[in-house]
Design goal:
- The longest helix is centred in the C-terminal third of the chain and has 39 residues.
- An eight-stranded antiparallel barrel has the order 1-5-4-3-2-6-7-8.
- The chain is α+β, with helices and mostly antiparallel strands.
- It starts with a strand and ends with a helix.
- About 55% of the residues lie in helices and about 20% in strands.
Length: about 500
């Protein structure tokens, strides 16, 4: 994987007459070191419709400077980006092509802008000589290389202040305070590329101004939710490939939310179109979940083991847990990458784009959200109620475990239905989703206990076959059994709160 660094910087407007103030007077600065002028030549790449720029992604090939090569930047927050670096080459590095695949799909990026920058650099260091930040005054010449405005140029001067690796972001506040006192103001453009694209674009025609409208119909609200989940899947693709924390889980949740919306709002979106898409989303969620489920189980059993007094951990328990987990792993990183690189996944993304652009709306989509959305949410609620009644009527045992698992799935769908309706229905939908989520949490912990007990029984059998004591495995099994019993006792009360008639009346009105 490419080298990665967290870039935290701020940009400021400047003119040829702008002079940097004495930054040695900034609190914490011991010395200002002049590092000279560097000439940079960067070509920025994108699709013809500027797909990367629309998502605030930056892809460039730059010569000059200490870090010449290919750079790919992902936004993290305002003024913060993750910058990935690959060595200089004539073609796009394969690692970058993979990270951009969910956006590029079947096309390759092409040069869109060239920036020539003359960079005058100063280093701000503390009294011990440790770098605090790099300050540069950049004189920039931009040329549009493709699309409307090809050949158009623009020039400007800007000031960049980039925090040193591991530095305190509060230091940038101190520098900015000094700059503002000298009359220097923050730049309106978030990046050089954004400014170059804006300043080399042809003069806009005078279209009739259209005020952006809030969602009006049931279809508007459902589509807004559907498009949000599609956007989440595309946005998380690079994060999954980079193995960022919780990225696989979040992407899996987005696929489930989308599939659930298709099922809940079948009166709004034609199921003849959405059912096949839902089947593909189920496949993707399954692929993403192979090792996520094992990860959750590993953590549960590991945490349980760590809470036991040392005198009760008999035999090579931790070692066996580690070996058992490794044996069940399926080469997750390679498997997930293969899925994301596969034709089936890319075809799914294309299908989702087509559905978003030309949604299969049914007549109910044109109705008022206050009428249509509660109807769909309460339909899911009633399905949950039937499954809860079925689960609660069973005595403890395997049949109840299975019934509670089915109720858990219904609770998740009902919760997602409430979440989707929340922008239209407000607080009633929020309260509904929160209370159903509480039911889902109890059912989820119960199901995790069922899975954990099955795993502990397997581990105990393996330990016994190897001549090891099974005392600790039995103890852990007992703890999980007690957890399941506690959740079963808790469930009726939690369900009673979720099935409150006032809450239902709120939704219906």
């Amino acid at each position: 994987m490419a080298d990665t660094k967290r870039e935290i910087e701020r940009k400021y407007e400047a003119t040829d007459a702008t002079r940097l103030p004495d930054l040695s007077r900034v609190a914490g600065v011991g010395r200002v070191e002049k590092r000279g002028v560097t000439e940079l030549d960067a070509v920025y790449y994108d699709t013809a419709d500027l797909r990367l720029a629309a998502d605030s992604l930056t892809l460039r090939r730059r010569t000059g400077g200490a870090d010449e090569g290919w750079h790919l930047k992902f936004p993290v927050a305002t003024g913060i980006r993750d910058e990935l670096h690959e060595p200089l080459a004539d073609t796009l590095p394969p690692t970058f092509a993979a990270l951009l695949r969910s956006r590029l799909r079947h096309t390759g990026p092409a040069p869109v802008v060239r920036l020539l920058s003359s960079r005058d650099v100063q280093h701000l260091t503390d009294p011990e000589g440790t770098l605090l930040a790099e300050v540069s005054v950049d004189t920039v010449c931009a040329e549009r290389l493709a699309g409307e405005g090809t050949g158009t140029t623009a020039t400007w001067t800007e000031i960049e202040v980039e925090l040193a690796d591991g530095g305190d972001p509060a230091f940038l506040d101190a520098v900015e305070k000094r700059l503002r006192k000298a009359g220097v103001r923050p730049s309106e453009a978030p990046s050089k590329l954004a400014r170059a694209l804006a300043e080399t674009a042809p003069a806009p025609k005078k279209p009739a101004r259209r005020k952006a409208q809030d969602p009006q119909t049931a279809g508007d609200h459902v589509l807004a939710y559907v498009r949000k989940q599609i956007r989440t899947i595309v946005d998380l693709d690079p994060a999954v490939r980079r193995d960022l924390p919780d990225s696989v889980h979040k992407m899996r949740v987005a696929t489930r939310r989308l599939r659930s919306a298709f099922k809940t709002y079948r009166r709004v979106l034609d199921r003849e179109v959405t059912d096949p898409v839902g089947a593909e989303l189920k496949w993707l969620a399954g692929e993403l979940g192979v090792d996520r489920d094992q990860e959750v189980l590993d953590k549960r059993l590991g945490d349980r083991t760590e809470t036991l007094p040392g005198t009760l951990v008999l035999g090579p328990v931790r070692g066996r847990l580690k070996v058992w987990s490794a044996a069940r792993r399926t080469g997750s990183r390679r498997r997930i990458t293969d899925v994301l690189d596969g034709k089936r996944y890319l075809a799914l993304l294309d299908t989702l784009d087509a559905l978003s652009a030309d949604p299969p709306l049914r007549p109910a989509a044109s109705r008022a959200p206050g009428k249509e959305l509660p109807r769909a949410v309460l339909k899911d609620y009633k399905k949950l109620a039937r499954r809860m009644e079925h689960a609660l009527e069973h005595p403890p045992g395997p049949e109840r475990d299975a019934a509670m698992h089915e109720a858990r799935k219904a609770a998740k769908r009902a919760r997602y239905a409430g979440d989707a309706a929340r922008p239209a229905l407000g607080k009633p939908a929020k309260r509904f989703a929160e209370r159903v989520k509480a039911v889902q949490s109890v059912l989820g912990d119960h199901q995790d206990s069922v899975v954990a007990r099955d795993a502990l029984r397997t581990l105990a059998i393996q330990a016994h076959a190897a001549g090891e004591t099974t005392f600790t495995w039995g103890l852990l099994y007992g703890h999980e059994e007690a957890t399941a019993e506690a959740r079963e006792r808790e469930l009726p009360e939690v369900w009673a709160r979720a099935s409150d008639h006032v809450l239902r009346a709120d939704l219906e009105h």
